[in-house]
Design a protein that fits this description.
The complex is a heterodimer of chains A (about 300) and B (about 300). With about 300 residues, chain A is of the alpha/beta class. Chain A is built from 12 helices and 10 strands. Chain B has one domain: MetI-like (MetI-like fold). Chain B has 11 helices and no strands. The chains are: A alpha/beta (about 300), B mainly alpha (about 300). Bound molecules: adenosine-5'-triphosphate (ATP) and magnesium ion. Chain B: Keywords: Cell membrane, Membrane, Transmembrane, Transmembrane helix, Transport.
Chain lengths: ~300, ~300
């Protein structure tokens, strides 16, 4: 019996790190088992949202990602885990070509969204980033009002009519579960919001441009447990409409909300599997060592 | 000697230095005011200078100072901010950028008298304009551009990178990101640069003596068409400024009240510069609010 399921059945001699102090192992185990039925190892071609083939990223001479192949499915949450510096953020940022903004970064390979290769040099990156939205680790609202934070990008992308913009703002805030908290102060500075509210505002801002895929780089790392729980709940709701890819250092979080998990180590993809399998019965020894807290 | 005593001594020294600075400032301004204020009257501010008898004013010089300043800012701020944007956002690390930076460095360390002589060669003699207000403004632009470029660049660079990334990740173009996200946040810094520039321009004498000239041409304050030769707004007439006038009357003034005129003009100069400071501060705060708040 492998180490992780030992822990789950309460026979462990040591507690893996990802249980933390919050975890009710029993509930988590049930949750993982429950989800096992819903997540087949492979889905149909029509369910594919975005995939990368042989994706390499270099920062100057530093070979940060070494040929990553992952297929992400529609309406699923996929978690990217791995020790610090293994390339999770780099991978996420390559999906919407944000690495282009780093002069030393070079990306080779294919990123396929609806069969279109996003890594071709002639692709319109502005239009692409509209389809692949991104939320960062630290909440980074603009130095503008709450309303303007959300209306800014849709206006740039061509929505000029005030009433339409109002609708877009309201809809985005509702989807990010923030509307009720801010509807009376839309024109106040976004900096007056709490950290958790700011992060949900950043999610709303990304949703306002109607992306197909939502990328989140440790979106709850700077937040308290209650705000984190709200974000997790929100993501579970959002996957009904979007494809969600999330980087997290929190094993519990990955286990709680994701359908699939990809484990990165030193720029390589070690294992990509449905979350329940990766956490309870991983294919690779390294994965087991990592999720059980033996290194990382 | 123990740490506590050392700390006390250091504190005392710093307080002394601070007091000395305040004392110098208050003493200087106080002395100038005490000497100059009694001579400032409506008559002094509005009448033209006298040739040999007492009782002349500085009206045209005051107007020329403001007009030269206005033209200088009109030239310096757009070009300076443009240069700052280029260096902060577009310039790579190539030899051209390095060359540009050292050129700016050299230009900013040139003494103003050298800039004045260069202006004499180019804007007075080469162009055949003679002494003109425009030539003076161009010389002052050369003198102030490095400062304006550098403060703008610094202000833009000091905007947190996550603000820029947030905007780019929403598919907003680089240029729109600069104008709508970076510049509003950088505005206070840019306005500070503009204040410094304005103060330097208003008080500058050496760069103007040989470009805008040391005499004020006859002007008709009822004619405001910039193209008519007698108009105060005609940029192609010679125009002695306040600072040049102070230098002239105190070094070679023929009027019996030359000392009083110089004192009055100095006090006026200080007052105007202080007023500029306050105004610019107010303006920057107002602009900042306007640009960051919702536009609806
Ligand atoms: N802007 C950059 N310039 C140069 N090298 C970089 C840059 N960003 C990341 N790297 C390098 O790429 C590698 C992967 O970094 P990345 O940020 O993707 O790791 P990560 O898995 O997100 O780590 P963490 O969990 O700490 O966020 C590291 O070796 C890092 O030093
Ligand atoms: Mg990271």
């Amino acid at each position: 019996m492998d180490c992780v399921s030992e822990v789950l059945s309460g026979e462990a001699t040591h507690q893996p790190r990802w249980f933390g102090s919050l975890g009710a192992p029993q509930a988590l185990q049930e949750r993982l088992a429950e989800r096992a039925q819903d997540v087949p190892a492979v889905k149909a071609e029509t369910d594919v949202a975005i995939e990368t083939r042989d994706l390499h990223v270099y920062y100057g001479k530093n070979h940060a990602l070494k040929g990553i192949n992952i297929t992400f499915y529609k309406n699923e949450i996929t978690a990217l885990i791995g020790p610090s510096g293994c390339g999770k953020s780099t991978y996420l940022r390559s999906l919407n070509r944000m690495n282009d903004t780093i002069p030393t970064a070079k990306t080779t390979g294919h990123i396929l969204l609806n069969g279109e290769d996003l890594n071709r040099p002639d692709i319109d990156v502005w239009a692409l980033r509209k389809r692949v939205g991104m939320v960062f680790q630290r909440p980074n609202p603009f130095n503008k009002s709450i309303y303007e934070n959300i209306a800014f990008a849709p206006r740039f992308h061509g929505i000029k009519k005030k009433s339409t913009l109002d609708d877009v703002v309201e809809e985005a805030l509702r989807r990010a579960a923030l509307w009720d908290e801010v509807k009376d102060r839309l024109h106040e500075s976004a900096f007056a919001l709490s950290g958790g509210q700011q992060q949900r505002l950043c999610i709303a801002r990304a949703l306002a441009i109607e992306p197909d895929v939502l990328l989140l780089d440790e979106p709850a790392a700077a937040l308290d447990p209650i705000s984190t729980a709200k974000i997790e709940e929100l993501l579970l709701d959002l996957k009904k409409r979007y494809t969600v890819i999330i980087v997290t250092h929190n094993m519990q979080q990955a286990a709680r909300i994701s359908d699939r998990t990809a484990f990165f180590y030193e720029g390589e993809l070690i294992e990509y599997n449905p979350t329940h399998k990766l956490f309870t019965n991983p294919d690779k020894q390294a994965t087991e060592d990592y999720v059980s807290g033996r290194f990382g | 000697m123990n740490a506590k005593i050392a700390d006390r001594i250091a504190t005392a020294v710093f307080v002394l230095i601070a007091l000395l600075l305040v004392f110098i400032l208050v003493g200087l301004v106080g002395y100038l005011m005490w000497r100059g204020l009694p001579h400032i009257s409506w008559h002094f501010l509005t009448s033209p200078p006298a040739f040999s008898e007492a009782g002349g004013g500085i009206g045209p010089q005051l107007f020329n100072s403001i007009y030269v300043l206005f033209l200088t800012m009109l030239l310096t701020v757009p070009i300076g901010v443009g240069g700052g944007i280029f260096l902060a956002e577009y310039a790579g690390d190539g030899w051209l950028t390095r060359f540009l930076r050292s050129a700016i460095e050299v230009l900013s360390s040139l003494p103003s008298i050298v800039v004045g002589l260069f202006g004499l060669l180019v804007f007075v003699q080469y162009t055949g304009w003679g002494y003109t207000i425009l030539g003076g403004a161009l010389a002052l632009m050369l003198f102030n551009l490095p400062l304006m470029v550098r403060t703008s660049e610094e202000a833009i660079r000091s905007v947190p990178r996550d603000q820029k990334e947030a905007s780019l990740a929403l598919g907003v173009s680089h240029w729109r990101t600069i104008t709508s996200v970076l510049l509003p946040s950088a505005l206070p810094g840019i306005v500070t640069g503009a204040i410094l520039t304005a103060g330097r321009a208003f008080g500058e004498a050496a760069a103007l003596m040989f470009t805008a000239g040391m005499s004020s041409s006859r002007v008709d304050f009822t004619d405001w068409n910039p193209f008519s030769p007698l108009s105060p707004l005609n940029p192609m007439r010679s125009g002695e400024t306040l600072a040049v006038n102070i230098w002239k009357v105190s070094s070679e003034g023929l009027v019996p009240d030359a000392r009083e005129i110089a004192a009055g003009a100095s006090a006026l100069l200080v007052i105007v510069v202080l007023v500029f400071n306050l105004l610019a501060r107010f303006l920057s705060r107002w602009l900042y609010k306007k640009m960051t708040a919702s536009s609806s």
